[in-house]
Amino acid sequence: MTPHTSVTADERTVLADLTGLLARLMEDEYGLDDLVIGPHTTFNRDLELESIDLVTLAGLLQERYGDRVNFAEFLAGMEFDEIIELTVGRLVDYVVASLKAAEAN
């Protein structure tokens, strides 16, 4: 799906998208393809992603959603502890809010 394709801004759809992107990232980088990823999954503790993985994730999000979702800007607004505790659910909330804001404009 191209970034310009209409994407509904609901949590279930975005969670499915992010789960797919994360599964792809984990399989490509670490050979892990049997992970269970949900809203409470943390990027640091559960997935053990490093900063370079977050850069890769930013690229995947850009590829998927285009300029409507700016992951780097999202992270830049956080304290270090917040980034360490970041969950998939919090990212889902951010993506949904970003998509809804883009739809409103």
What features would you describe in this structure?
The protein has 105 residues and is mostly helical. Helix content is 60%, strand content 0%. It is built from five helices and no strands. It has helices at 11-30, 51-65, 71-76, 80-84, 88-104. The relative contact order is 0.20.
What descriptors fit this protein?
105 residues, mainly alpha, 5 helices, globular, disordered N terminus
Largest sheet: none
Number of strands: 0
- The rounded distance between the terminal residues' Cα atoms is 22 Å
What sequence of helices (H) and strands (E) makes up the elements? HHHHH
Helix content: 55-70%
Percentage beta strand: under 5%
- Tally of individual helices: 5
- Which structural category do the helix and sheet elements fall into? mainly alpha
Task: Please sum up the structure shown.
The protein is mainly alpha-helical.
Topology:
Elements: H1 11-30, H2 51-65, H3 71-76, H4 80-84, H5 88-104
